[in-house]
Amino acid sequence: xxxxxxxxEVDAPVGTxxxxxxxxxxxxxxxxxxxxxxxxxxxxxxxxxxxxxxxKEWDAEIVxxxxxxxxxxxxxxxxxxxxxxxxxxxxxxxxxxxxRLNFEPETTMERIAGSxxxxxxxxxxxxxxxxxxxxxxxxxTGAWRGEIRGGQTSGPGDSGAQ
Length: 162
Hints:
Elements: E1 2-10, H1 14-21, E2 34-39, E3 44-51, E4 54-66, E5 70-78, E6 81-89, E7 95-103, H2 108-115, H3 118-137, E8 147-149, E9 152-154
Antiparallel strand pairs: 1-7, 2-3, 3-4, 4-5, 4-8, 5-6, 6-7, 8-9
């Protein structure tokens, strides 16, 4: 498995940044190659993306989600990957986002792209696009403040749709 870890500082409060990040279905607005993310329930997402001209699909499970701190996931079908996004407040009312992605290259081209730093470059680009997205909006498009720990969901009394 290959690992990428990248960070970026965003000029927005941690609550705003975290709330926007939980709007998974809006990821195609700022993530290159992501065609669609469908929220299946509180913990499961279906992803459709393109990498190196190849269409990939997978289902992911959120294994931990703590408001204003972190979101961790793992794939449960399709393209193997897992990772975590951490949100750290700064002294200037901003937020440092740190994304750690572990992925299993499935083809020789993907292994080469990973070793040449192309995956890391895409992650950096996606983080910059997210930063621009939230800083220009200055408010999140939605929020889900529930928690997921140890496979158990707790939080708002609604359906939990994010």
